[in-house]
Amino acid sequence: xxxxxxxxxxxxxxxxxxxxxxxxxxxxxxxxxxxxxxxxxxxxxxxxxxxxxxxxxxxxxxxxxxxxxxxxxxxxxxxxxxxxxxxxxxxxxxxxxxxxxxxxxxxxxxxxxxxxxxxxxxxxxxxxxxxxxxxxxxxxxxxxxxxxxxxxxxxxxxxxxxxxxxxxxxxxxxxxxxxxxxxxxxxxxxxxxxxxxxxxxxxxxxxxxxxxxxxxxxxxxxxxxxxxxxxxxxxxxxxxxxxxxxxxxxxxxxxxxxxxxxxxxxxxxxxxxxxxxxxxxxxxxxxxxxxxxxxxx
Length: 297
What we know:
There is one protein chain. The protein is of the alpha/beta class and about 300 residues long. The chain is about 40% helix and about 25% strand. It is built from eleven helices and eleven strands. The strands form three sheets. Strands 3, 4, 5, 6, 9, 10 and 11 form a seven-stranded mixed sheet that branches. The relative contact order is 0.15.
């Protein structure tokens, strides 16, 4: 006879989302002892520990990571079954997203707007990380969907195209490179570059572009696009920046966008999901809200 209850499964899923018994208790509106007892009974039933305690927080064990997608599916299918009997099909629940720097800071309206407009009762929790951190979050099941700027290659992850984007090379007003009527690669010799931190997709694309230019100097590494933009405006160097981040500053003359047709700075923005993660109604609705744009040749 199966002794596992739906409540025990729900407790397991909620602890994995909040990282603590206290957080799960608050979200489920029950006492902490009740959550602890439900988890202990669930672990007894499956004869395995589902969490490791690290610095006061609960992290999924290897067995927990294996069982979480199945537990999430059970909980989400139960919610869908209950909704199917309602007259209103308004979606509710929570989605955990993480977006890379450019998307989270400059394209968040395009990313979230269509979904929020169609499903205002869904709670969205959105973090901003670099691509490497988002991949790690998906693999650890700490987020449901990632939206990234760079290529992701992992056997456990599913990649869905969203839209095209590109970087542009920017310099401070009056920089020597902005004086040329037609820039050539040779003009970039000894240029001072400001780059994103390692692990970011923007850093990878910028480094690829630099391989087709004469040697320069990396004078600064920063973890935020806006910080890089301000450093360029201040005259500390030149940088490859997302075009969406440069529009306002370039329009008022605080930043100069250089014409570099000899550099390929195009990239594809994509959604990333864990293949084992059940794509329930919420995830399907979010993916459907982002119609992918046409790929550039």
